[in-house]
Amino acid sequence: MKKQKSMSILAATFALSTLLAGCGGGSGTGGQSATPQPSNNSGGSTGGASGATEKLVVAVVGPMSGQYSDYGSTAKAGAEYALKEKAEAFKALGFDVQLSAQDDQADPKQGVAVAQMLISNPDVVGVVGHATTGASITAAAQYEQEKLVMVSPSATGSDLTEQGKQIVHRICARDDQQGSKAAIFAKNQLNVKTAFVMHDKAAYGQGLAEEVKKQFEKDGVQVLGYEGVTAGEKDYSAIITQILAKNPEMIYFGGYYSDAGIIVKQAREKGFKGVFMGGDGYDSADLVKIAGAENANNVVFTSTVGDIGATEDGKKWITDFESATGNKVGIFTSFGYDSMGVMLNGLEEAIKANGGKKPTREQVLEAVHKTKDYKGKFVNVTFNEKGDNDFASVYVYKYEDGKKVFMGEAK
After folding, report:
1. Is residue 383 part of a domain?
2. What is the pLDDT of residue 4?
3. Where is the Leucine-binding protein domain (predicted)?
4. pLDDT tens digits, residue range 206-235?
5. Which of 78, 299, 314, 411 could form a disulfide with 308, with the two C-beta atoms 3.0–4.6 Å apart?
6. Nearest 5°: CA angle at 60, between 58 and 66?
7. Where are the alpha helices (H) located in 247-387, listed in sequence order?
8. CA distances from 316 to 311, 319, 363 (A)
């Protein structure tokens, strides 16, 4: 459902008065209404030393319900944790920075509706999100009109930052980086010589598959077929039979874990013993549940997020986060945390540049865009002119006996 930009005063007032409750990492329900709903925050009072602070709102947007809820809910949990750590510092500056979480259900149309609602709220000064590429692209067109800056933790589609929109930023790698490095890794490290490439016809999955196909052809890996399938199907046996007849060493599927799990399961049941590969859309324990632990063996995927538990500092952060929030660290918890860190750093710089007064959205945009050598907990950030992060990297994982195993950086 698509809301008009000009909302009623009553609706806007209601949106301003409600904030996110808790940080929950649950998957929610897929039957939620398509109308974006304001949510409640459990944050404390707004009293500073003088008894009054001025409210600022940072939104976190992604799929909080439905089959892709892992992405939005884990990013939200990390973002909220980062905001809580900085809340008192902002109160000392005279501002109560609150979080508003919104569910776009990974739907481009819903992304527009959420964006229009956020734009109508004058206290919203930035957006951490959106989590998926399709919703990010449509929402960005709305934010651009009002100079409302966004910092995505996870939208990897190359087109997102190629459309010339000033408000768009992301801390993760692009699909042209992820796809090309995946193909290079498959050839050089997995010794793949033949592959069948498929995708889910969506912005993320197809974009990733196209980059893999392009790199395979450049490097001499034989692409035996390239096909799109419809996401959400329960039976992929027809395309699987077509693939197995060509006997590829690898099947690369650009898409999300919900479809990948079914494809893996059905292909294994038909006798495919080769390597499956995909992107960060595979990074969910649900893929193993859907495919079955044994079937998921030899499923390899790239990710824009490294192994955050590889260092003692990272292990301590995981322990502290889980103890403080009651949530397990998920796929985009760390990048939700660092995306909010980038946003809050820009907001603080904008406040200072504005003489301690509430900055405009354009001032916050300018400060965020100037981010250089920001030392995040998990990724450093310098935005180039397009809004891409100069420090973004690609990593490789595999599933082994039902568990995710880190394989290293893809180079």
Report:
1. no
2. 38
3. 58-401
4. 999 999 999 999 999 999 999 999 999 999
5. 314
6. 160
7. 257-269, 285-291, 293-296, 312-325, 333-353, 361-369
8. 9, 5, 35
Q: Is the residue at 359 inside a domain?
A: yes
Look over the chain and give the mean of its residue pLDDT values, rounded to a whole number: 89
Q: Which residues pair with 102 in a beta bridge?
A: 61
Query: How long is the chain?
Result: 411
Tokens for 5, please give them: 């930009």
Together in a domain, 50 and 133 = yes
For residue 95, the 8-state DSSP code is E
In b/e form, how buried is each residue of 351-382, taking b as 16+ CB within 10 angstroms? beeeeeebbebebbbbbbbebeebebbbbbbe
In this structure, the answer to whether residues 273 and 401 fall within a common structural domain is: yes
User: Is the whole-model pTM more than 0.85?
Assistant: no
261 shares its domain with 339? no
Point out which residues pair with 60 in neighbouring strands.
101, 128
What whole-number distance in Å separates Cα of residue 287 and Cα of residue 299?
Answer: 10
Q: SS3 for 227?
A: strand
Query: Can you read off the two tokens belonging to residue 73?
Result: 């809910």
User: In terms of residue numbers, what domain contains 122?
Assistant: 9-173+313-378
DSSP-assigned letter for residue 59: E
- What are 345's two structure tokens? 């750093």
Dump pLDDT digits (tens) for 337-355: 999 999 999 999 999 999 9
Q: How far is CA 176 from CA 3, 105, 138, 142, in A?
A: 33, 25, 20, 25
Q: How many CB atoms lie under 10 A from the CB of residue 43?
A: 17
Give Cα 106 to chain centroid, integer Å: 10
> What are the φ and ψ backbone dihedral angles of 18, each rounded to 5 degrees?
-120, 145
With beta carbons less than 8 A apart as the criterion, state whether 257 and 331 touch: no
DSSP β-bridge partners for residue 254:
199
Q: What is the DSSP letter of 6?
A: S
